[in-house]
Write a structure and sequence with these properties.
By secondary structure, the chain is an alpha+beta fold. The protein is 34% helix and 25% strand. The protein is built from ten helices and 13 strands. The strands form three sheets. It has a seven-stranded mixed β-sheet with strand order 8-10-7-11-9-12-13, sandwiched between helices. A four-stranded mixed β-sheet has the order 3-6-4-5, covered by helices on one side. A two-stranded antiparallel ribbon has the order 1-2. It starts with a helix and ends in a 14-residue tail after the last strand.
Length: 319
């Protein structure tokens, strides 16, 4: 099968039709119509076999996650998903793999109304690069740099599920299906991100781990924070693993949660509760922003945790 056969059969009409796509897959460029009064939010991520997913991972899950992480970035800005582009590097033209990959990618595309408008295919070690584009009303994007002393820190969902799945898979241990799905098929919190426009002062998606990602908010905002570890939302399996090992790096630094961490001024807490009730999705207050710098982790015992590893890093400084 040729490169163009792959594109025509599996990617030429992927995702729902959109009136703002003037010209999509099949030409030298896509032609897209940006609505008036909207800013364009753009993010790109690359996934390499062996680094971001196991080579034997279900290709439908690879397709889902490759798009999900970009949608999570859009969610962190409060953006509405619109368009995606895809660069796919394949060791061979394996149509069964591509068909399953496209199925996972397409299902999530339809769920969030995002249209594939272009890309590239090439031969080489298996990797996937996805760029996503979304709209956010001008001046309403939620950035990392807006947190202020007195703001409350919230996270969505639960933390450490994907990290525990990855740890067990690397150890050759059995993995509960719900944990594996959290690792391989994360659900981006797009509706929550959109609902937090005008409510949250700062926000980030938890891709590399709470410790590192919350640290990015603090650095961008020029503030410090305190977090009560007893208030972290952990499912029973992660809580048990932490209790048995005393290792808090699982929920703090494993990464791949793809939940949202955001800051809320006290005056907006009631609006947040109304949003949480409407979405019926759990949100947890875990700490607060303070003046100064640094991040204090309060253990349930009252002691301060000294955490050495703050999150995933492709190029850690080992000097």
């Amino acid at each position: 099968m040729s490169e163009f056969d792959l594109i025509r059969r599996h990617f030429s009409a992927l995702g729902p039709a959109r009136s703002d796509v003037l010209l999509g897959v099949g030409d030298d460029c896509a032609l897209l119509d940006l609505p008036a009064g909207q800013s364009l939010a753009v993010s790109i991520d690359t996934f390499a076999a062996g680094s971001h997913f196991f080579p034997d991972c279900d290709p439908a899950h690879v397709g889902h996650k490759a798009l999900a992480v970009g949608l999570s970035d859009l969610a962190a800005m409060g953006a509405d998903p619109a368009w995606s582009t895809l660069a796919l590097t394949l060791p061979s033209a394996d149509e069964d793999w591509v068909r399953a990959f496209g199925r996972g990618f397409a299902a999530l595309s339809h769920a969030h109304g995002i249209r594939l408008v272009g890309g590239d295919t090439t031969r080489g070690p298996l990797s996937v690069t996805v760029q996503v584009h979304g709209f956010v009303p001008a001046g309403e994007a939620i950035r990392r740099g807006g947190a202020r002393p007195g703001d409350l820190i919230f996270v969505s969902g639960t933390l450490g599920d994907a990290g525990l799945a990855l740890r067990r898979m690397r150890d050759g241990a059995a993995v509960e299906p719900e944990l594996r799905m959290r690792l391989e098929c994360p659900e981006p919190r797009v509706a929550l991100g959109q609902g937090l426009r005008g409510i949250a002062s700062a926000m980030i998606d938890l891709s590399d781990g709470l410790a590192g990602d919350l640290g990015h908010i603090l650095q961008a905002s020029g503030v410090g924070a305190e977090v009560d570890l007893a208030r972290l939302p952990l499912n029973a399996m992660v809580a048990s693993a932490v209790a048995d090992s005393g290792d808090w790096s699982l929920p703090l630094a494993s990464g791949d949660d793809y939940e949202l961490c955001f800051c809320i001024p006290p005056a907006h807490v009631d609006a947040l509760h109304r949003l949480a009730g409407r979405l019926e999705y759990p949100l947890s207050a875990i700490g607060s922003i303070r003046a100064g710098s640094g991040l204090l982790w309060h253990l349930p015992s009252g002691d301060i945790l000294d955490i050495q590893r703050t999150g995933f890093d492709h190029f850690p400084d080992r000097s």
